[in-house]
Amino acid sequence: MGSCPGTTGSSVREAIRLALAIAAKDIRVELRSRTALLSAVVFAALVLVVFNFARDPTAIAAVDLAPSVLWVTFALAAMVALNRAFTIERENAALDGLLLAPVPREALFLGKLLANLAFVGTVEAVTLPLFVLFFNVDLGGALPGILGVTALATTGFVAVGTIFSAMAVRTRFAELLLPVLLLPFMVPPLIGAVQATSRLLSGRPLSEVMGWLRLLAIYDVVFVTLCMLVFSAVVDE
Amino acid sequence: MPSSDGLVLEARGLSRSFGRVRVLRDVDLTLAAGEALAVAGPNGAGKTTLLRLLAGLMRPSAGEIRVLGRRLTRGSGETRRALGLVSHQSLLYDDLTLLENLIFAARLYGLPHPRDAALAALESAGLAGRAGESPRRLSRGLAQRAAIARALLHGPRVLLMDEPFTALDAAAAERLREELRRRLAGGLGLVVVTHHLSEVWPVANRVAVLLEGRWASDEPRTGPLDGFLPRYHGLIGA
Fold first, then answer.
1. Which residue of B has its CA nearest to A34?
2. Which of B123, B155, B187 is the last residue of a domain?
3. B146, B125 contact by CB (below 8 A)
4. Structural domain count, chain B
5. Exposed, middle or buried by CB within 10 Å (0-12, 13-18, 19+), for A27?
6. What is the chain B residue with the closest CA to A99?
7. Could you read off the pLDDT tens digit of each residue along chain B, which spans 238 residues?
8. Do B95 and A236 touch (CB under 8 A)?
9. Is the CB of residue A84 less than 8 Å away from at least one CB of chain B?
């Protein structure tokens, strides 16, 4: 039976409204407690400091090492931020309140994804200037390209991280299980991101990294869609 | 609206196992509009599991549940709108105020004026003066009142309550009974799981006993609780 286009349109609008309400709630909770955001930012700064003092600038040029350091920092900080996505729902069994409500599971996933993107994006926004400072790299004209790569890579692994965070939260070892589940899925976007960042920092034109950008975009489309489709099976007991 | 046979809730052949342990065995349940069913039973009888199944928070191993005549499934968002649940936990976020918690819940249920609905629910629970407080600052009794306010906020047609009178003082308990009577008169279907039948006896018009995952009895509430208790104790072997 086909659905009426008007009905489909209004259910999409309703799903977006619910997703925004859930994301706004998550952001408000985080702004009030500030625990995950602060620990992720401090953790990212610490990783950069350690890498900065551990490297030998005479042995390897900053521009060769910098992309890997940047993405290791982003990935580890994202892990810290992603852990909070569903742990806040464990308190007072708040997740039951979400699941009990007439909220399509796709909207719930989208809301959580948006909130996680806001957190990880904030951590990255703070980390990037620190990275420039510590590694003395000149972003210059590469900045728009790097921002594009960051947005594409982050969307992919945060989508996968959101679903694994929902899966891990029901277990006793949520904090340990999330990295174990997520890291293998982070490898493809991280490879693409490191390769593209490396070329952009070396002053190569954007056209040279279009292949990597396309790969990252395909990863995003596939995994955001897949995660949205299987989310119900993950959260509904 | 209730189904054509007047039922707001119907469960057929409900079973649930956790591994090899069968917690519920082939349980049937019907609830008409305006009916209040008190479910009693010893610890581990399956009462909380039954309630979570009826709320759609857990999938049955076998059987099906119908709410207002529609099957409760994973995707049945609209059917969930008819349900309200008071569980052992408040379902509230400690980092939001009571008002923010209820506004968020009102948004989830698509209520037209979330803030007004949240304020009215807090007022009705006697918590208007505490709207700006965090749930973590509330006493157990006040948190329970907030949890009840959250469950009633969207005007559910079927209300599922697990020990709702826990930690409530006498005045708050009486206020809750009054609220339930008013909603039952309006067509609410109520299932209350309890160890303390005396709290719910004045509201219930049916009482059932769950024993080892099966109904040991299910009968209309007639007469005072004192007349039922010897039978109940006999059933549970107390």
1. B95
2. B155
3. yes
4. 2
5. middle
6. B57
7. 566 568 999 999 999 999 989 999 999 999 999 999 999 999 999 999 999 999 999 999 999 999 999 998 866 677 899 999 999 999 999 999 999 999 999 999 999 999 999 999 999 999 999 999 999 999 999 999 999 999 999 999 999 999 999 999 999 999 999 999 999 999 999 999 999 999 999 999 999 999 999 999 999 998 899 999 999 999 888 6
8. no
9. no
Q: Which of B103, B138, B155 is the last residue of a domain?
A: B155
Structure tokens at B110: 């698509």
Q: Are residues B136 and B147 in the same domain?
A: yes
> What is the nearest CA distance from A5 to chain B, expressed in angstroms?
19
ipTM, interface predicted TM-score of the complex: 0.91
| Strand arrangement of the beta sheet that strand B7-18 belongs to | B21-32, B7-18, B62-67, B70-71
Together in a domain, B172 and B71 = yes
CB-closest option in A18, A88, A100 to B83? A100
Which residues of chain B neighbour A17 with C-beta distances below 8 Å?
Answer: 107
Tokens of A83: 């852990």
Q: What is the pTM of this model?
A: 0.90
Full residue range of the structural domain in which residue A120 is found: 5-235
B3 and B47 assigned to the same domain: yes
Joined tokens for residue B160: 């599922």
Summarised one tens digit per residue, pLDDT across range A32-80 is: 988 888 888 998 999 999 988 888 877 777 778 889 999 999 998 888 8
List the structure tokens of A233. Answer: 């099976």
